[in-house]
Amino acid sequence: MTPTTGFAARLAVCASLLLCAAGTALAQDTTHSRISRVTVYSGSATVERAAKVPAGARSFTFTCLPASLDAQSLQINADASVRLGEFNVLTEDRDVAPACASPLDGRIRELEDQIAGVKAETGALDLVDSYLKGVASSRGTGDEAPGGRTQHPTPAQITAMAEVLRKSGQDALARTHQLRRKQEALELALKPLVAERNRVASQRARVVSVSINLAAEREGELRLSYQVRGPGWQPTYRATLDPAKATVLLERQALVAQNSGEDWSNVQLVLSTGQPGRATQGRLPRPWTLDVAPPPQPMTMAAPAMAMAPAAPPAPVARERAMAEEAMPSFDVSTTDKGFATEFAVPQRITVPSSGQRVTLALGNHTSNATLITRTAPAVEDAAYLVADIATPPGVWPAGAVGLYRDGAFVGTGRLDFGAPSTAPAGSTSLSFGRDELVTVRAEAPQDLTGATGFTGSRTERRTRRAYSVENRHKTGITLQVLHAAPVSRNEKIEVESRYQPQPAEMAFNRTPGTVAWQQPLAAGATAQFSAEHTVRYAKELQLQERQ
What we know:
- It is a single chain.
- The protein is of the alpha+beta class.
- The chain has 4 domains: 29-102 and 205-229, no CATH class; 103-144 and 152-201; 232-276 and 331-372 and 386-435, Immunoglobulin-like (Sandwich); 439-539, no CATH class.
- The protein has helices spanning 3-29, 103-141, 155-201, 302-307, 316-327, and strands at residues 34-40, 44-53, 59-66, 69-78, 82-93, 143-144, 150-151, 206-216, 220-229, 232-242, 247-257, 264-272, 343-345, 350-352, 359-376, 384-391, 400-406, 409-416, 428-435, 439-443, 447-453, 459-472, 478-485, 494-501, 515-522, 527-539.
- The strands form 5 sheets. Strands 10, 11, 15, 16, 17, 18, 19, 23 and 25 form a 9-stranded mixed β-sheet that branches. Strands 1, 2, 4, 9, 12, 13 and 14 form a 7-stranded mixed β-sheet that branches.
- A hairpin with a 5-residue loop joins strand 6 (143-144) and strand 7.
- Helix 2 packs antiparallel against helix 3.
- The protein is extended, with a radius of gyration of 40 Å.
């Protein structure tokens, strides 16, 4: 065999090995799938995966699925060119599936490699520094010339060598300092990843694979959907008040987090107010029966033992439901319990890592006209607050926390809940945008008088007077609302008579008896006076119980 022939033979063998490797890689690539869509509920999510099936394929395996997968929720479908058969579900340890490494492992290995590279370069610079020190030491004592004589460097050589050593040493030390800073930053980034991997190691130590028998006449798409427990989303809002225009800009946002064991990378995300974890059927009423009670039986000796018997354990279904509800995280998403859920589809593709990190999504905004009211309760606090009543916007707005802004400045946080009882008119809600410093509130000292009435002094009469004044120091007029609590009798033996100046606009503010409200416009620089006088009469022998 000639060298040329031998070389050609070896080349053919290498080509065959490369083709085999490529074929093996192609066969392994048939198990690759991607997450195409995720629907997030309160405490759970439905994940939809898709994969390409080549023509002639007889089986396909979805690998590295999270252990939190609910096997009963599996749904499999495919294009018309792919006929589906039976499928198997296998749960195994992640350690025996090298291809199913934790999503954090790749990032940790990458950082560890970078740290190792930095350490290697730092070590090399240390060698350079040691070498330069050695050169400087040898040059300082002079070189030995032929014949055993010491040859001392000339001044020009000393100057040139000193400059070279200075420049080289300076560069080496500066680079060493930069490398140490870089190593500190890499180690700081590595620490939380290692802590997170250790935290979830016990929970995510197992993976699931789903093997499907099929017959693909031509290339098509195979789709698998399943539910995982744990992910969730929480609504949050930003409300910006423009007092000059009397409008409130509501920005709707959502906080999404998950630690299911698999990253959602570049997926179509849908947020739903549905709650699949809830019971699908309501409780039924128990029968209501009436019977004549049997005569009491005499106590026997066995009675104490029966009384000490343990209670019957709860039914298995109730126990399992209680355990499931305890394990589910709490996400306050929906405001009303309707039969149909509302979904919010995010237009752009989203990435949500499996580290529990919260991702904030914008779900649109709405500008509402507002009715502005300056509200005060002088008997409780000598301060006034700016309140905006806004109508319920179209669509579904789940209850959630809201950040409050006035004139572009942050004033605090509150809660937006269009379904909860509110001081606003029906179909509206109230948002308080902080204290109004340009409204001065004063409450006079209460005046209480108590005396006896009746022909024989058999009745007690108590008179109480409250007076308030409010000054508007704004350059424009405001709508003022003053709240006051009046005594309410809960017994016919107690009489209450109240007189107000001026007459309040509401006698049961916010549907609360006894809470009166004065509401009127107040011009710029003007002061308004309000007073309430209450007379309480009751029999002298009665002991009055008063809660305030």
